[in-house]
Structure prediction request, 573 residues.
Amino acid sequence: MGEYHIENHLTVIDIIILIGYFILLIGVGFYSMFKHNRSTVKGYFLANRQMPWLCVGASLFATNIGAEHFIGLASSGAAKGLSVGAFEVTAIGIIQLLGWVFLPVFIATGVSTLPEYMHRRFGGQRIRTYIACLYLLLYILTKISVNIYASALFLNYAFSWNIYLSILFILILTALCTISGGLASVMYTDTIQAIIMIFGGAFVMILSYKEIGGLTNLYRSYLNAMPYNNSTENLTCNQPTMRSFQMLRPISDPDMPWLGFFLGHTPNTIWYWCSDQMMVQRVLAAQSISHARGGTLLAGYLKILPLFMIIIPGMISRALYPDIVACNQPSKCQSICHSKRSCTNIAYPTLILHILPQGFKGIMIAVMLAALISGLTSIFNSASTIFTVDIYPNIFSFRRNKIKTRELMIVGRLFIILMTIFGIIWIPVVIQMQGSEIYVYMQQVIGFFAPPIACIYLLAVLWTRTNERGAFTGLMVGFSFGLLRMILDFSKQPPLCGEKDTRFWFIRRIHFMYYAMFLFWITFLTCVIVSLCTEPPTEEQLFRTTYWTRHQQLQDEQLVMDGKIDGTNSMLR
Prediction:
């Protein structure tokens, strides 16, 4: 790193901490192997629905707060201030929407995956297959690739480890945690990871607040945090403004317009917390609906932490080390962090390398590995669940009745490897297109595809007149417009500091949140119009599949005998 290189050797204490961390993880994995039956789909993918509320809430939090949060949220805090905190705060209420509105419906239908719910609600296979494939695409574009990239940034900058060998080691450990015990192993390890992340993050937070001298000094120092520039160029890119300490800003603000946030980002949040397989799978594994709701409440309280534990420390990092974190001169940034755009992505690693006492680096390595592994194990388990339950049986529909549970277990494990390969292949695109804020990149990509899915799930759960034709047509229209925006966005890279923005005016002028709002409402109108112009759904399709019919009693026992409706559901008792 040239003149910015920092001593990064590990002490004996660091190594002991890391060894203890790995032993703890492996021990939890073996514990779950013996405690839970993994020989069935329900046992492997839903932990036999025996998880207590503490594990559910901790797993929701740990799954959400991956390495991309520690790197990405701190980066956005360093670059733009408090505005990114709005993403975290709004999730507190949306998580409760999952527990009190969506979850009772999903439980009443007895489904294991969200695409399976769509099959139960609308009939047919095309919506189920489309949504399953789209989920897997989003996991590759926004979760697997970004998690691995964020971890590579940390390891490369902070410890000068070989990136590829480090990532290979982490992926092997992650795969072992996922493959060995299924969702039970994932949720138990998530509980351990959540504890490690909270205490480790809180330790860095306290030291950073002490280093800056309190929030009052942060306000003054952050506004003046610009790098020293000894060149003739007068580069003022990414200069902090008075709005840096506002979360919601005017409707024309390029970072966080309040109208676009409420109307455009809310559908993304609903998709993530209420209809994303990765998150909903955790509450479906709860012992009862009370434990599931207790888990959502705990996760809501924990979601308050990232603002104080990650975002503000990211701002502190810029204020303390502006020549490194606030770099805006392309050639200088390249020498510091191997990126010409900005070095805000190394805000969190820079902070912990400077303020942590000797012997505590092992703790923060464990924190970052906890964030990475908790995210990847959750992604892998949910992705393999979707593939084995919703896609694989349909590919081989001619032998669906002959597919054995053992075959599904093997296919699910092999699919994890395939997903990882695709995620690694996508990393170069993430590097080129994420600019200096990988968290904002994630929100943009989610905004391309998530609003139509959120719209259809809302209509499916809350409006009994929604039918299959309306839902599928709405999804196709929303996907077409979302794909168009993604192609235009990715056709040209964002400009470097001092360069003219030559991207399409459509991309420059229309904020991605406003476009997400457009995608939601075009999907809504299309679905409503087509549904009203075609035949209504059948009674069988509405049986326990909407919020208003979730308590319906069986009237036609033949449906149960035919296996079309699951008449038993212990979680509702």
